[in-house]
Amino acid sequence: MTKKNDLIQTSGKRKTAVARATLKKGKGRLIVNSTPIELFKPEFYALRIKEPMILAGNVANEVDINVSVFGGGFSSQTDAVRIAISKALVKHKPNLKQVFLDYDRAMLVSDVRFKEVSKPNSQGQARSKRQKSYR
Questions:
Q1: Which end of the chain is less enclosed by CB atoms within 10 A, N or C?
Q2: Mean pLDDT on 117-126
Q3: What share of the chain is helix, strand, coil (3-state, %, to 5)?
Q4: What is the largest CA-CA distance in the chain?
């Protein structure tokens, strides 16, 4: 761990959601947008956020992680938080990198896919266009 204030700051992105995580020495607390992970709803997303902490094992009990996330929806925010936490833990203990990559590569690598932009003359659809009847 670095000596510069003993803080590690990382970020994670998914679609339009951006998460910023701060890791410091502590007792294993995980706080997302000022809410402890135990109170986070929906519970399915809380479990996805906890995955890096579970895989890290005892390392996760030595640090506190505070995450702020904005933009996107529940699922995108969950993935962004998951990436930010994983990156912070890998900076803290580099030997965790291979553990995360073996489990799920998406824990460390952002998914760059976005919704396709709607095209003109397609009534709000991204791909299908109105057919022309003349020839």
A1: C
A2: 83
A3: 40, 20, 40
A4: 73
Within 8 A by CB and 6+ apart from 99, the residues are 55, 56
Selected from 3.30.230.10, 3.40.50.1100, 3.40.50.720, 3.40.50.300, the CATH number assigned to the domain covering 8-107 reads 3.30.230.10
CB atoms within 10 A of CB 68: 16
The per-residue pLDDT for range 14-50, each reduced to its tens digit, is 999 999 999 999 999 999 999 999 998 889 999 999 9
